[in-house]
Amino acid sequence: MRAAIDQRTCIHCGVAFRPTEHRPDFCCAGCQFVHDLIAKNGLGQFYDLQESGVQPVKPLVFQKRDYTWLEELVSAVEKSPDVVLQLGLQGLSCIGCVWLIETLFSRKAGGLSIRVDSTMGQITLRWHPGVFDVVAFARELQSFGYLVGPPGNNDTPTNRALVIRLGICAALAMNTMLFTLPRYCGMGDDFAFAKLFHKLTLILGTLSFIIGGSYFFTRTWHSLRQRVLHIDLPISIGLAAAWLGSVYAWGKGAHSFVYFDFVSTFVFLMLAGRWLQQKAVERNRAQLLATQADPAPVRRTSGEKLPVTQIVNGDTFLVEAGGIVPVC
Predict the structure, then answer these.
(1) Which of 30, 111, 178, 202 is the most exposed place for a label (fewest CB within 10 A)?
(2) Dihedral over alpha carbons 249, 255, 259, 260 (to 10 degrees)
C-alpha cells in the first residue's frame, strides 16, 4: 500500500515516479523545465494531443551542444537554388510532438515549410535564406526535448530491403526443410513423390542462395575491389561451396550428400545476424545523439585521454566492447 501511495505520474511525460518535497509533480528537472516552457508559450494543446505519454526529458535540455556542423550544412544549402535541408530528429513519440514542432516553426520568421516524419525520425525544412535561423530553431527544439542530428545516410532503405530479404529467405528455409524432412525420415528413391521433392529442394535452395546470398556476395566483391578482407568473405565462400557441392551431388543422384536445407537455413541465420547487428548499430547511434554531439575522448594504450578531433594516422587507442569507433 505504501508503494502505491508514494507513486505518482509525471505531468509532462506520464512516467511513474516517486515524488520528493522539491519536485512533487515531475520525474526530473528536465520534464519540469519543458512543462513550464510549454505553458509559458501557450502550447498546452500539446498535452491534449498526446497519445500515450512522451519520453522523459532528463538533462538533455540543459546540455550545451556544438552546432558547428549544422552551420556548415546551412551555409552549403543556402548556396543552392532550392533551399531544402533534411535532418535527423530524436525524441518524437506521438502526434503531439509533431504538432508542437510545426507550431514552433510557424512562429519563426522566414520559414516556408516543415515536414516532420515521425516514423523515420526526420524533419525536412524549407526557408528564406538569411531570414530564418536554422541553428536557433535547433537550439529551441533542444530546449523542448528534441535533438537535431545530421541527415541520415541510406541505412534505412538498406534495412528495409534487408528485412524483406530476411522474410523471403525465412519462408524459403521453412519450405526447403519441409520437403527435405521426408528424406531424413527414410524416404527412398522409389517413393512416388521422391523426384518432385528433390527437385523442389533444388529450386528452393537455389532461390535462397540467389536472394539471400547475393547480399553477402555483393559486399564481398566490393571489399575485394578495395583490397579489404571483410567478414562477408568466409560467409560467401561457405555458401558457394555448400550450394555447388549440393548441385553436383543432386546431378549425380547422390541425394544423401545434398544439403540444400543447410544452404537455406544458413542464409536465413546469417541474414538474421546481420539484421540484429544493424539494429545494435542504430541503437548505439541513438545513444550517442542523446548524450553529446561529439564522441567522448578515447584512451590511448599509454592511458592518456585524447579528444577525437586530435586523432591522426598511426594513433593507437582503446575501444570498449560495444563502443563506437569515432573515426571513418
Answers:
(1) 178
(2) 90
Residue 71 and residue 135 in one domain: yes
Which one of 25, 42, 58 terminates a domain? 58
For residue 153, the model assigns a pLDDT of 46
Q: Are 123 and 116 in contact (CB under 8 A)?
A: yes
Same domain, 242 and 225: yes
d(CA 177, CA 185): 12
What pTM did the predictor assign?
Answer: 0.51
Grid coordinates belonging to 36: 513550464
Distance (Å, rounded) from C-alpha 59 to C-alpha 56? 9
CATH number at residue 124: 3.30.70.100
Whether 72 and 44 map to the same domain: the answer is no
Of the candidates 170, 105, 228, 121, the one whose C-alpha atom is nearest the C-alpha of residue 113 is: 105
At residue 115, φ and ψ (nearest 5 deg) are -125, 120
Question: Using a CB cutoff of 8 Å and minimum separation of 24, what contacts does 129-138 make?
Answer: 129/78, 129/83, 130/78, 132/108, 133/108, 134/70, 134/74, 134/85, 135/67, 135/70, 135/71, 135/74, 137/104, 137/105, 137/108, 137/111, 138/67, 138/70, 138/87
Note whether 282 and 173 are same-domain residues: yes
**What is the domain range of residue 35?**
2-58
> CA 99, CA 37: separation in Å to the nearest integer?
15
Residue type, 317: F
Contact 58, 70 (CB under 8 A): no
| pLDDT exceeds 90 at position 207 | yes
Contact yes or no for 143/61 (Cβ under 8 A) = yes
Check whether residue 128 and residue 168 sit in a common domain: no
Q: Within this chain, do residues 18 and 92 fall inside the same structural domain, yes or no?
A: no
**For residue range 252-300, what is the model confidence (pLDDT) as tens digits?**
888 778 888 889 999 999 999 888 877 776 665 555 455 544 566 778 8
